[in-house]
Design a protein that fits this description.
Length: about 150
């Protein structure tokens, strides 16, 4: 099993940071390992099924997740979770927590745990996923700089 946690204060208000993370269909525009992502089913206003294809060097895999969002305009906290539905994992659990801080900034807590179903993928894929996880919050912050300035 692989797990990774990261906390960071970003210089943008919660609503903007949450919107970037929740806008999953645009991930291929700025996450270099995300080749394709589409929402395949909307369960409710705050739940949907997403199909993502990721690739790095010779590895390319598709997996399906259930994404649940918890945010109300003007709230001081928000949450987004991603759970494994189908694909090369035994399990995949991702949590994003957002909290407003002083000076109109946002504290972002990112946590991910996963285990590949195949030992080969567990060995090879963990290196790729570990690298991707370490960059995840930073990539969203760079995306915010590009969209919102600063």
């Amino acid at each position: 099993m692989f797990s990774y946690d990261k906390s960071k204060i970003v210089a943008y208000p919660l609503d903007k940071v949450f919107k970037l993370v929740a806008d999953v269909e645009n991930y291929p525009e700025f996450l270099p390992w995300c080749n394709k992502l589409k929402i395949t089913d909307r369960i409710s206003d705050n739940e949907f099924i997403a199909e993502m294809t990721v690739g790095f060097n010779f590895i390319s895999e598709k997996f399906i997740t259930k994404v649940t969002t918890d945010y109300v305009d003007g709230a001081k906290e928000a949450h987004l979770s991603v759970k494994h539905v189908d694909g090369p994992f035994n399990f995949l659990d991702t949590d994003w927590k957002f909290a407003s801080t002083e000076y109109n900034c946002t504290k972002v807590d990112f946590a991910i745990k996963f285990e590949f179903a195949s030992q080969l993928f567990q060995t090879v894929g963990s290196v790729f996923f570990a690298s991707a996880c370490e960059m995840m919050v930073d990539m969203f912050e760079k995306r915010a700089h590009k969209i919102y300035g600063k």
